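Researcher: Here's a chain I'd like modeled. Treat it as a single chain, no partners, no ligands.
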Amino acid sequence: MMKHHLADDKMSVVALDEAARRWAGELEEREARRSGVSRLQARRIVARRTGLAPGTLENIKNRRTKGVRGWVLGVLQAAYVREIENEIARLSHELDMARLGVLASDDGEIQEMEAQRASLRELVG
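Model: Modeled as a single isolated chain. Structure tokens:
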């Protein structure tokens, strides 16, 4: 995953477009998995949540842009960071419950959740 932030002025327009494509795709994929809906339905949910048109997300995903506008990048980056932070919170809660014995988890599952949480924290810096 890309760890660049929009403040990093060394990123090219192509790299920024790729970042937007990746963030949009990740948001759609995570929403589809979480909600159990199709990618199209997930795109509509993500669009509503971010204030972007579903067609804008589709164009970004299919590389049909001539450069993603700065505010769109900001919206996608913020939504992606929020998504990762929510996932970290969920994993932290599950870990706490597993450690307290509320959830039946073996040491392997706990270690796996800790590893997932660490890698997600790395993504958001």
